[in-house]
Amino acid sequence: MKAAVVGATRGMGRALARLLAERGDRLCLLGRDDAELVASARDLEARGAPAPVATARLDLAAPGGFAAALDAADQALGGAFDALVVTGGAFAPQAELARDPARLERLLSVNFTGTAVLCQMAAERLAARGGGTVCAFSSVAGDRARRSNYLYGASKAGLTAFLDGLEQTYAARGVRVVCVKPGFVKTGMTEGLPVPPFAGEPDAVARTVLAALDRGRPFVYAPPAWRLVMLVIRSLPRAILRRLSF
Amino acid sequence: MLPRGLGRAYGDAALPAASGGLVLETVRADRIVAFDAASGLLTCEAGLSLAEVLRVFVPRGWFPPVTPGTKFVTIGGCVASDIHGKNHHRDGSFGQFVERLQLLTADGSVVSCGPAEERELFLATVGGMGLTGVIAEVTMRLRPVESPWIVLETKPVGGIDHMLESLASSAADWPYTVGWIDCLARGPALGRGVLLRGRHASRDEAGERPPRPRAGRRVPLDAPEWALNPAFMRLFNRVYYAWRAAGRRRHVIPYEQYFYPLDAILQWNRLYGRRGFLQYQCAIPRDVGAGPVRALLGALAASAAASFLAVIKDFGEGSEAYLSFPIAGTTLSLDLPYRGRSTEELVHELDAIVVRAGGRVYLAKDAVTRADDFSHMMPRLGDWKAVRDRWDPHRRFRSAQSVRLFGDPA
Questions:
Q1: Residue B108: beta bridge partners?
Q2: Which of A83, A176, B10, B41 sits most deeply, having the most CB atoms within 10 A of its CB?
Q3: CATH code, B149-373
């Protein structure tokens, strides 16, 4: 695989990028913080990614820079990347998003608009040259709106629907689309939040995702138990859902 | 505040001082910064675990120069405790393989230190239990190995003198040596046990297969208290001794099995039930002979405080780090099921024997040693305190252990 990865500096993205590095995949890291990108690049080279692991600027809130970033990835990966993996995203507690419209607007831009535009551009690029893989991390929070996190959840619901459509449209042109729906995973993003049952570890989630990436499965829950959890949540009558605190 | 890695210290070394101070968890700072495949020089963020170092580098022919009994420790933690392993008699402790540290000190600056650079700060940080600042980055040397297998030889040993002799005579030919002792044996059989000697297997001895990782078992709940009564333990010890005592035996085993037997049983501490246990480890200097070790074993046998795991090892020369634990002589490690005051009194009794012998206890395991006793154990405690006075006069870095042992404000 020749993968352009957004979000490899932390959390699940870091764990997944390491698995790719360990099996010798070529990598280009995209993100906002140069120092972090370079530090992660060195880590991945030490773990087996062919050197140099290149880095380039990309901000999911600034779609104007996407074309340049994808060009940089193409150049770094021998002329053409064959996979885009977007693990990065924004998160904030519901209460903060509800009272801060600017923060909410930014979260929705990063998680939905930016990610969708980037994936659309990548899918088109890959289709034009015969195929590849587009993978983005949505969330179980997008499966059904809940009072405790519907603002974050909505951004992911939109992303899930987008990836669903993308998959249906580009399959015929050789592009596989993988929508990852993590449940609660213990990373820096969820630090401080109460840990529910079935909470996942980044390394285990990364292994589940890698298996799905290799097989091109369109939807994957990680940890897998969350498929069942969300099935239950999706079937709850509205009157009960309204009264849930989680 | 207090930096904390994987939290494997047995006592209160990685617990915050009572006033609810900040704990800085370092485990997510786990990236490799650089590795030189020609020299084995590794630079990494200090939250990287030894387990990861093994996983990434053993297949490439590199091994940690010193490893403790568990791989679930961070590299920063290895430095902060100046950990030792089964090869101390030959190679010394972890700090002796560290070339450079990057430290976040109390005033917020990032300071580089090493054997020839800010040397006093370096000697205070190695073994300094995180109290000189947050270790952010470590540069250390790995050791080349031909295979991931270990050649293990076991030999039954009839008593304490025989054990000490066997450790000494094995030292030249075996890089890794350790003895297991049956603490419940008394009289002439005092200190009887099994000597386990190991070395890295050569490529020919090992063959091509990599060792298969064994699925860990997990202890699902706390064992009931009655499981730890002396009768049961005596039986356990007898069976283990008999198993190992069938003469000298040689095996080629995966390194995990030799170095990390307990890691295969996740949450093994639960075998001690809800009240848990205290772990006690001391070092006795060589020049006082076997008397103090006999006295320690005698005190243990007399107290009926059963110990599943009693481990004995010879130490080589100590390092120059101010609070470093190992000194040339013998080290003894024990688990003491916790029964309240009586267990703590036993520790004080053992401490008294150790102080009289000119020895010390291991801070990574210590939980109840008194400040006064500890001050008599470490001749360079004053040098260490002077470094702290210079770099952290307001004691921003402190732990529950430093409150207990060094009078830090709670």
A1: none
A2: A83
A3: 3.40.462.10
